[in-house]
Amino acid sequence: MSDRTPVLAFRDVNTHYGAVHILKDANIEIYAGEMVCLLGGNASGKTTTLKTILGYVPPTTGHVELDGENVNGWSTAQRVANGVTMVPENRRLFKRMTVRENLEIGAYLRHGEDLSEDYDRVFDLFPRVKERLAQKAGTLSGGEQQMVAMGRALMARPKVLLMDEPSMGLAPKLVAQNFEIIDRINKAGTTVFVVEQNANMALSIADRGYVLQTGRIVLDDTAEALMANPQMREAYLGDI
């Protein structure tokens, strides 16, 4: 992989919240078409990783790259315009707005473009979303809200789709359905970076994975190898 340019990369990234050192010499590479997961427990630095990608948290040292370009000085809007979109934890829909209006917000940087193919893609993945277009987003079930949040992100036509804890707050059956859809999105050509505590589910669809412990990446391997890694099994996977 070293002869290719990653679509997204961390290069020796350190971040701080005041005096607190969060990410410690983090190196991550994600290549076009891949599904990569970032695993770790609470307070491991997973959310800070996403905030750093989006520009909410600047690196103290090191830098973030998009398509090989250092984007440390870029605003969040610039990063989104260049193909990075996130499905946030707990969906964060505009609950008083309709489903259609939430989807339109996903395409706000594509003002004036024909969105018909994008709507068709979302409706193909989520037929129920099409049925709920005129409904207020806040009246949907948790599973339906997750569908709308994913659809909203896809309306931006992302190069890299960031997923923040997609299993959070969902029943086990819906978690499985959710990851099946994420797998379909990836297989259709979208690069996906999943931040997740449910290691079993994430590794079942990922190509590769990174494991964070207290801000350091302690494991980095193929999903298959991580599933078989004794350290990984003991700490994150349980008896599988």
The averaged pLDDT comes out at 91
Weakly predicted, low-confidence segments: none
CATH topology of the largest domain: Rossmann fold
User: Could you give a short account of the major beta sheet?
Assistant: 6 strands, mixed
Main sheet strand line-up: 8-9-10-5-11-12
N→C terminal distance: 30 Å
What's the gyration radius in Å?
18 Å
- CATH C-level label of the largest domain: Alpha Beta
The amount of helix comes to: 25-40%
DSSP E strands, number: 12
Figure out the total of helices.
10
In total, the number of domains comes to: 2
Give the name of the CATH superfamily of the largest domain.
P-loop containing nucleotide triphosphate hydrolases
Strand content: 15-25%
CATH architecture of the largest domain: 3-Layer(aba) Sandwich
What is the H/E string?
A: EEEEEHEEHEHHHHEHEHEEHH
